[in-house]
Amino acid sequence: MNENNIREVVIVGGGTAGWMAAAALSRYLNNGYTSVTLIESEQIGTIGVGEATIPPLINFNDLLGINENDFVKATQATFKLGIEFVNWGRVGQRYFHAFGDLGTDLQGIPFHQLYLRERTRRTVPDITAWSMSAAASAQGKFARPGPKAQFPLDQLRYAFHLDATLYARFLRAFSEANGARRIEGKIVDVELRGEDGFVQSVKLDNGQTISGELFIDCSGFRGLLIEQALHTGYEEWTKWLPCDRAIAAPCSSTGNPDPFTRATAHQSGWQWRIPLQHRMGNGHVYCSSFISDDEAERVLVSNLEGELLDNPRRLSFTTGRRKLAWNRNVVSLGLSSGFVEPLESTSIHLVQAGIARLVAMFPDRRFNPLERNEFNRQMQQQSEWVRDFVILHYKAMQRDDSEFWKQCAAMDIPDTLAEKIEQFRNRGRVFAEGVELFPRQSWVSVMLGQNIDPEEYEQVVDGLDEDKVSLALEQFRRKYIEVADRLPTQAQFIASCCAAEGAKPAPEFAL
Amino acid sequence: LRDDRIEKVVIVGGGTAGWMAAAALAKTMGSMPGLIIELVESEEIGTVGVGEATIPQINFFNTMIGMDERDFVRSTNATYKLGIEFRDRYVHPFGFYGLDMLGIDFHHFWLKGKALGDTTPLDAYSVGAVAGLGGRFDHPRPDQPKSPLARIGYAFQFDAALYAKYLRRMAESWGVRRTEGRVVEIVQNGETGFIESVVLQDGSNVTGDLFLDCSGFRALLIEQKLGAGFEDWSKWLPCDRAFAVASESNPDDQQPLTRSTARPAGWQWRIPLQHRTGNGYVYSSAHVSDDEAAATLLANLDGKPLGDPRPLRFLAGHRKKAWMKNVVTLGLASGFLEPLESTSIHLVQTGIARLLTWFPSRRFDQVTIDRYNRLTEREYVDIRDFLVLHYNATERDDTEFWNYCRTMDVPDGLAEKIEIFRRTGRVVREHEELFTETSWLSVMVGQGIEAQAYHPAADLLSDEETLSRLQHIRDVVAQTAALMPMQRDYLQRQGSASDVTLRRAS
């Protein structure tokens, strides 16, 4: 063991981010000499609402050795095959951003190029008719494809909808079993080291002082360490992503939980709908310069499908990112490192991405800037990818029924995104590089879904026989439907292996 | 604001009793303007605390101070407890037996079944007993009133030192002041005899209006200073010593039960915690030598001992006055009853509850004090009788010790209770006494007291109907228990690792 190895990791804040970090670090640092301590206060609520995720969360579970069924049971989770966008592009329009492949590439030619040519010949359904996830989703179906699943079931990709509060509790149990220590307390003071301004310790309201070598700031929007103590600075993205408030409220749900998140555009924002096993999570994300809080709440409440189960909770935020996700000996994760609205369910993913990079670039007590700089570079890239993809949804709006959307459609966008849109408009080209978070299929789904129509398809497509391709496309399409027909409904699947606990009745006396 | 209000409470001693009192007082009265709660303890003085078993009433205490159960279980290396197993004989379960029918207690139908030739033991009708013996645990299901789980009772077994630490953290966060120091002198008011202050080794003087004596067997204030006197019950409870030793936990035996095994001159406890097992032999020094007692204990462990057995000495009985002048005793300072029914912490808790109910002003009205002392004494007497029952109702005649117990004169109230049960099958629960009908029934039946009759109304059910209902009830109990998770899995799911290798030394 290197004598410079970190011995004390202190995580500040115990929401989703804090406990994800505690879970991962307690597992990876279970070396007998590194302590992982998490400080949280029951007085401070977490933002946690119904939370939607994207497929990489499966990797996180795998790395930690978390059994997926246990996780689903404990968090009242459901399976998610994609996102349905309603009233984006134009009012009355719907499209589906499905996880997983779109069709199959033929002779190295991207499937969507074949599709683009096909639609110059005849009227074709939306491109998601060639998605296994979308086909299952349309019928409310779900099954977990095994490792030996065959085409096209092997194309099904999924993520989860979960109750963030229960998720934190689940990870807490996991972390504590792995030796992480939880301390109850509110932080009232942060002490910096004289010579280099590193965080040395935090002081709790009961007078206790907790010192550490590496601090993980999971304190949420406040950025207790990264901002309030270290004044790292925040880069605002509000000119591109102007929504700055949200109201969240759960409502009752019945029947088969839809295996997808729904995002419905309203006049000054949009509403999420996240089906869980026991209820439905809802929220209205909006721009406060275009709609009042009370009006926004009325819009939310009047667009609920079930009975309101709790008082609506109001949240404010500023879209953007912390200028340095890692500053001195403080690594920020979650809301303290930045915020992009959950339109593409990326919040938990960014936490996970941060954790994975922290583990990969784990420092020692000398805090070599090489690690920190690389971490910051990669995290900036991650958050900008997310930012651009979310801006796309705002930019590609043809709605003229509200001032808000008209402004969004007219706004200047980051060059990186402008270029992507131009490439696509021109010949349907998408250059999502291997490491990019959203794959080619995602860009294609959203751009076509929001009516960015390429002027032409790639010339190479003409090398393939039109009729044969046409026939193949039709066969594929039917295949997706046939397979989806045979899958269980989401409710059936959950009942078979991962229904939340507490629901199972105990035997009773019949006297 | 009353101008005769207590402004300063001083707690002397920081074991389980001291910190329970500190936490409870701070939680309930901490926001009283100007009230200071100060606890004086010395790290030089050890606490008696071993593995500690409790009874379900502790849940009230934990709820009152707002404890998060999972956190508490994990932090104190606790396990769940569904009852006490009297080894090879019976289980005294928390909760209830079977199902009351036609407005009369279940056990009358059981007695009737027995008369009809159904020899199924009482244990088979308690989900706590069946699940406990099977190593299973689950929380109650009040949402399902017809399930045996509806009223299952549970308590905990935990590391008393960690419990005190846990309570200390809570108490300090609520403003309790802790002062390190050994008390070397106690200052009394010359006129009234009230305690004015305690002087610590370093010369500092801690003054107070109300003193809680939690100093353990030494009873620094109430006895050494005020001479309250001790009511000696050793003629009924002759055990006066114990050896305690922890042993490695047995991973194959994770029953949520405290175990009690009769030995030649007393009995042995076994309290399984998450990381180790607490053991002890409580014995009568008149009937066995210390060396032999220690050897007996070591010969009867189910895991490797962790250290040498620690000797403890005590005397069964209670302080004649639990409250004198401005001193209230809690814990061992106020009395001692052997842990055969895990009542030590309970006595602290009810003492605290009583103190909160009768919380004095600086006038210290004598009527309040008298009332408090009467209630305290009654509680000790109730528990004493229940403990004596275990000793007296025995068939053992293989040692001097058990011969003495079997043939001793028992307290009057107890003799009557036994007699009523023997003749009529009725179980008497006096006033609000701690142990319920279930407990009395369990121990009387378990210790071999045969009831000669049952409630006449049990004959409202025909013989066949009685037997088939008994069958149904024990089937449902067995089925319910079989579906309960193993305690080990249950703890792990809650973030407690019952597998000791998963626990990193902290």
Shape descriptor of chain B reads globular
The secondary structure category of chain B is alpha+beta
What's the alpha carbon Rg of chain B, rounded to whole Å? 23 Å
Strand content of chain B: 15-25%
Mean pLDDT score of chain A, rounded? 93
Helix-strand makeup class of chain A: alpha+beta
Helix content of chain B: 25-40%
Please tally the β strands of chain A and state the result.
22
List segments of chain A where confidence is low: pLDDT < 50 over at least 5 consecutive residues.
Answer: none
Q: Which regions of chain B have little confidence, pLDDT < 50, spanning 5+ residues? A: 500-506
End-to-end CA span of chain B: 46 Å
Shape call of chain A: globular
End-to-end separation of chain A: 66 Å
Mean pLDDT of chain B: 92
The neighbouring-strand order within the major sheet of chain B is 6-5-15-16-17-14-18
Largest sheet of chain A: 7 strands, mixed
- Computed Rg of chain A: 24 Å
Spatial sequence of strands, sheet with the most strands of chain A: 6-5-15-16-17-14-18
Tell me the number of helical segments of chain A per DSSP (H or I, 4 or more residues long).
Answer: 15
Beta-strand portion of chain A reads 15-25%
The largest β sheet of chain B comes out as:
7 strands, mixed
Short overview:
The complex is a heterodimer of chains A (511) and B (506). With 511 residues, chain A is an alpha+beta fold.
Mind explaining what this structure looks like?
The complex is a heterodimer of chains A (511) and B (506). Helix content of chain A is 35%, strand content 19%. With 511 residues, chain A is α+β, with helices and mostly antiparallel strands. In chain A, 50% of the residues are buried. With 506 residues, chain B is an alpha+beta fold. In chain B, helix 1 links the parallel strand 1 and strand 2 (36-41). Chain B is globular and about 75 Å long. Residues 500-506 of chain B have low confidence and may be disordered. Chains A and B meet through helix 6 and strand 8 of A and helix 3, helix 6 and helix 14 of B.
